[in-house]
Structures are given as C-alpha cells and as structure tokens.
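To the structural biology subgroup,

Please find below the input and predicted structure for RND family transporter, which we are adding to the shared reference set this quarter. The sequence is reproduced verbatim from the submission form. If anyone notices a discrepancy with their own records, reply to this email rather than editing the shared folder directly, so we keep one authoritative version.
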Amino acid sequence: MSALRRLFRTVGHEIQAHPVATLLIAALLLVTAFGGAAQITSVTGDQAFTAENPTLEKFGDSFDRGSISVLVRGEVTDPATLRAMARFDDRMSTVENVAYVSSPADRVRAEYGRIPDSEAKIERVLGRPNLAFVQVVFEPGLTQPEERPIYTEALSAEEWARFPAGVDVIITGSAAFSAQLSVLIQQSTNQLLGLAVGLMIVALFFLFRGVRLRLLPIVAVFVGVLYTFGAIGYAGVPNSTLTSAVFPILIGLGIDYSVQFHERYEEELETAPPREALPRALAGIGPPVFVAMLAAALGFGATWISTQGTPAFVWFAQTSIFGVLLTFLAGLIVLLPVLTLYARFRRRGFGELGLHELADGGWKEMSGEASTDADDGTDDDTPDGTPPTDPAVDGDAVGPAQPGFDGDDDPTDSERVGAFGRALGRTSRTLAANPAVVLLVAVLLMGAGFQAGTGLDTLADTEEFIPQDLPAYVDLQQFRAATGGGTAVQYDVILLGSDLRHPAVLRWMEDFERVAVGAPLVQGVDSPATLVKEYNGGEIPQTQAGVERVLDRVPARERARYYSDGYAHITVIAAQDMTTDETLSFISNVGEAIEFSNPPPGVQAELTGTAAISPPSIVDQIESRNVTTGLGVALIFGLLLAYYRRLVKAIAPLVPMFFVIGWQNLYMAALDIPVSPLGASLGALTVGIGAEYTIIVMERYYEEKSRAGASKLDAVETAATRVGKAISVSGMTTVFGFSALTLSPFPILADFGFLTVGVIFLTLVAALATLPPTLVVLDTLEDRILDAFGRSGAGADPAP
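Predicted structure (tokenized):
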C-alpha cells in the first residue's frame, strides 16, 4: 500500500473512532475563523491593479491627494444656495484628514467678508453660471479605508447644509467611488455566496440521488468557505472585485471533494460495515482527490506567480489556494464524522449494522464478536495496534472478497450505478475501442480553438469591470461631462533629484511641455515652470534665488501641488475618453517625450500614478495568458510525476485538459465572451480544476485493470460506470456553483461565470470522452515499449 493511501486509511480510522472529537476540532476552527473574517478590508478601483512601486509610493505620500467633488446645479448665485455651499465648506474643513475645501463661497467671502443678500453682488464675483463645483481635498498618502469616512461625512454635511429645493447636488470623486464600490463588492460577495449555495442545494437534491444525507456536502463546503474568510483575514488578503468571484468557485470545487468522499463511502458500505467502510473509502478516494486538490492549488499558484505586478489577481489566487485547501479539510472533518455518527444512529435505532438494510443485498452480518466491536465504536486495528491491510486498496489491487461479504458481484451491475452509470460505461468502452477517430476529432477541434483564440476581443479597461449603473460611476460621468473630463484625464510625472527649483530644471520643464504637447493624445502640461511664470509675469527668473522669491509669494496650499518633500510634480493632460490602446499609446508618448527632452543631470522624471501603471499591467496579464497556462501545466505535470513516478500516469490526465484549453476558445467565440485579465488565467485553472476528474477516472481505470482477467476495455467500462456518475454529479454541481457568477453585477465576473460554466462542462466531457481512449493508447504504447526493453520490475506501480 502506498504511503499516501496508508495515511488516508489512518485518517479514516481516526475519524471513525473519534467523530465527536473531530467535529469539536471543526467547531473550534470555525470560531477562530470568525476572528479573521472581521479583519478583512476592501481595495477597489485602479489601486487593486497597481503593484507596490517606490516611485508611486513617493508620489502618493507627496502629491496624490484624493478628493471629493461636489457638483451643484441650479440657481448657483442665489444667496441661499451660496450660504449652503459655505456651510458645507465650513463643516468639511474641520473633518480629519481634509487638507482644504475650495468653493465659490470662498471667492465671494473674500470679496465681501460674508455672503451678501444681493444676488447682483454675487454675480459680480461669479458671473451667471448654472453650475458650480466644491472640492474637498484630502491630505496626501491616505489609504482607501481612511478616505471612506470623509465621504460619509460629506453626505451628512450635504444634508446639514440645507441646499434650496430645485438645486441638484452630486457628490462624487475617488472616495465616493471607492466607498460605493466597496459596499457593492461586499453585497456582491454575499449575494453570490447565497446564490451558489442555493443552486448547489438544488443540484444536490436532484442530481445526488440514491444516497442519504445528500445535502450534507453543502454544509461541509460552507464551513470550508467560512474557514477561507478567516484565513484571508489573518493573512491580510483584502477583498476586491475579483476576490468576490472566488467563493462561488470554492463552493463548486469543494462540492467535488465532498461528493467524491460521500459517494465512495456509500459505495464501500455495499460490501463493508461502517467501521471498515470509512477507512477503505478514504484509502481509495483520498489520494486521487488530494492530488487533484493540489493540482487545483497549483493552477491558482500559476496565476499568482505570473501576475505579481497586479495585486487583484494575486489576491484572487491566494484566496483560491486557501479555499481549495480548507474546503478539502472541511470535507474530512465535517462531512465524514457526521456520516459516521449517522451510521451509528441508524445501527442502534433500527438494529442495523450499517447504512443499508440486509435486505438490500449489501454486506452480510459479521460474527457476533465483530458486531460487538462495531457497536462499541472502537477501531478495528490488529492486536499490535496497526491498521489491518485492506486488499481492496493495497497497491491499487482488489483482492478476493472479504469473508462474509458479497465481493464477487459485477462492479457494473449495481443498483447504485443505475442506468446512467451503465450508459456512461458502455459509451466510454465504445470510444476507447475507436481511439484514432475520437482523438483526431478532439485534436482538430483543439486546433480550430487555438486559431479562434487569436481573434477574441479583450476587456482591459478597469471602468468596464464595474456595473455601469453604479450611482458613483454615473455621478462621475456627469461630473466629467460638466468639467470636460475632470481628474480622469490627468496623469502625473514625478521628478526626483536635487535643485528641482533651479532655473535650468524649470527651462527643461518648458522643453518637455513643448515636446509632449506635440505628441498625439497629449492636450497640455501643468508644471512648476507654469506656476513660476504665472507669478512672475510670464518669465522664469535667471537665478535660483529669484525662483525662490517667486515661490515664496505663492500660497502654500497651491505651492504644495508642485513641490513637496524634495520632489516636484508635473501634470500631463490627456485626451478624453481614451480607449485602452490609446491609453497605452499616451503612456508611451509621455515616456518618449521625457526621454527626448533630455532631463538635466541628476534629475529623474517618471510617469506614475495608478492611472498610468494599472492599464499596462492588466494588458500584460491578458497577453501573457499562454505563459500562465504553460506554467500551470508545468507545475501540475511536476506534481503528477512526483506522485506517480510514472510518465504515462503524469501525462494521461493532462491530455484532455489540452483539448479543453483549445475548445474553450471556440466556446468564447460562439458566445462573444472577451478575454479579461481574470479569464486569461483560466487556462491554468482549467488544468488544475479539470485534473480532478481525469485523475479520478485514471485511478479507477488502473484499479480495475489490476483485477485478474480484466482487459483494458473492461477496465475503461468499469471505471466509467463506477466513477463516471460520481464525477458527472460533482461536475454538474460545480457548474451550478459557478453559474452564480453569471448573475454578478460586475461585468468581468459575469463574463467569467459564463466562461467557467462552459469550461467545466467541456472538462467533464473531455474526462469521460477523450481520457478513456487516451489511456488505452498510452497504456498500449507503454506495454510495447516495456516489451521491447524487457519488463523486469516494469509492471509494478511505483506510486508513493
């Protein structure tokens, strides 16, 4: 027996012997998880797609001032409206972390010392506008959680200021957007989680028939999801737009693990009492499901490794890895002890020795001594304390029937298999008998899919990731329309070096402006040189002392926009409504303008800010999807090779996954699903997630093949009959769980939901349709090679 099988058999013995203690451990972990879940924070917008960057951090600490913009429409020059603005201004000026508030009321009060009662006097200062702007500017370097209370206070201040009826007030800006998006992410996470659970209940109720406690797997998975919330809280992984997609995925994957445990336990109960069934079930199904779980984790790990520059995807991968590990654990420590207790309850309540009545044709009653053993719940170890060897799982071989058990039944002729299972078995046998035709069709479809993948659209604009009817986004669009673009078209260049106030540096800024404005998509440049010329009659002083005298005359609040802590800040104005390609072109143009204008020695100029850094990192993620897929395949192949130490067993489970990677492009083209940065990671995830189905089918194939007199086609048919129904049920329940994503309010998650639903279905088809002929072909090829080079020791299975 392999070491991993012995380990899982021992785990089965311990759970069977101590189910209550196991559940207490699960409960303790659950209580601990609540403490971690309370520590989860949210990160939204471009910040979620921007990696740590020293220059960006310096810019954020010195110049990146978040703000709230208030758009006032209506009778702006009405004294009542202006007094409301003044009240709003005065209240927000006292809020913590607010640097200053700028409003039309300031200009009027500067002129008259108060808000006059005469509208004519106000018009002499402001003119006759029908809209006005109030800007609440924050201290630099605030995090999103620190900005959100300011937005909350602004909402209260707007009500307290009592704007007159008929005046429309819109509060928008970075903090407003972040706050509303954070709330929506939390709501979306809860809704998707609820939908996934509900859909899973429906799926298990109608698909997982023929077993008792068929809804129990959803309880185990939900506990695993709660464990995951706790884990990411303790690990400091924030919730983001993409992270909320993880939990329906985890429910889908976790159901797989629990359904496989549950189904195999029920199968073993046909020929063994409960105290033997659980260790035997875990010894048989535990290793392949464990390896499949590790494969899924490595698929997410490939996403983690390949997206280091994009935090949102790293958080998605980290949360997913925590999730698959913990939902697997929950299947062991929640599902199995409950099944054990239920078996004992039925035995004592109805005089049964197991979950199946003797009239059902299940296992026969053991000796009186064995029955007593079963009744007291003690483990069935040998006298020396070691678990007895079970031929049914030792070395993947199935030995002779155990004394007192009906072990000689046809494995394809069981009531639990049903017509569907038998149909799967016959179909798999037919396909395996014609491998050339099946594999040729699969390869042709895969090639067509790879060709179709080159023409798929992409989704890379972060504003397209979010609901287009989000109130903060609608308000932001209105603000942009009223201001001609607002802050959304401003990009930032930060200067590092000494003597940034030297006339030579200021003259270089003028050169940079001339070069940059001549480039496409660049509309203007606002630099310290612009500020100095404004306060010095349009000229730059000849000496640094002269520059210092000019800057001394500039109000401190205004000067802080250009100089802070030894750094200088240049703002580059871009064209409005740029596409992703145009944004990338703009970023390139600014970089070339910096290089061409040749900054003075000792001065380093760099375009920075989340708006400049986020788009390239997202596009890189999309363009590197083949690298991510290749990395996932390599990691999972390494895992399978290390576990099986047999090339055929490492390759066979991956062949159907290659087919699916190609097929999924045809599916995306048919449904017009664009390639998003989240969908770009699906190739690696497909291999990781789908490996579970192929590994389980392959494991059962070799188990059945080891039976005396069994041919390859017999093994294929029995494997598909016995586990085909189980993986079909778990696959369809996974589809139900993933389908919750299609109802997400976030377009990027909805598209990912449609994509994953299709891919999981294709994976299931590939596992049942293309793996059997693949196994027959590779197994036959291996036999011929071994025959050619001699078979000394070759027939043994070296799986650890």
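Summary notes: Confidence is low (pLDDT under 50) at residues 349-409, 792-796. Residues 498-602 form one domain.

Regards,
Lab coordination
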